Amino acid sequence: MLTDLGKFLRKLRIDRNLLLKDMADLLNVSPAYLSSIENGKKEPPFDWVVKISNLYSLDFDQNNELKRCVIDARNLIRIDFKNFDKNNQDIILSFARKLDGLDSDKRNEILNLLK
Predict the structure, then answer these.
(1) Measuring CA to CA, which of 13, 14, 56, 76 is 20 to 30 A from 2?
(2) Of 3, 1, 2, 5, nearest to 66 (Cα)?
(3) Dist CA 37 CA 2 (whole Å)
(4) 3, 40 contact by CB (below 8 A)
């Protein structure tokens, strides 16, 4: 799943006629690592905001957008589903979808069950 950061970086490359490998080389990372960040599989280093902004001479608005995208990407919670069977995956996803609708008593009840 391409993240907002991935979209930002991809657009930056396209606008400058660069390949993923070109950007990865400039950031001193492998293309696979950069791709995994763009796809939300890895968390981007926060120092990339300054590094990318300087490398590509981003304007004020672009720099703010990049910062927002990096912060959002760093705030994502990732769950590796490969070790869960289909039933457990369904339980996790159902719980995540319903969590906001639960009152504090229900959340505490569930938390106590899980302890």
Answers:
(1) 56
(2) 5
(3) 9
(4) yes
- Give the tens place of pLDDT for each residue, 78-89: 677 788 899 988
Domain at 4-74, CATH class: mainly alpha
Amino acid at the residue 114: L
Distance CA 34, CA 70 (A): 13
| Tokens at 63, concatenated | 């720099």
Which amino acid is it at 79?
Answer: I
Residues 51, 56: Cα–Cα separation, whole Å: 9
Instruction: Give this prediction's pTM.
Output: 0.68
What is the spatial distance between Cα 113 and Cα 13, in angstroms, rounded to a whole number?
A: 49
| Contact indicator for 65, 8 with CB cutoff of 8 Å | yes
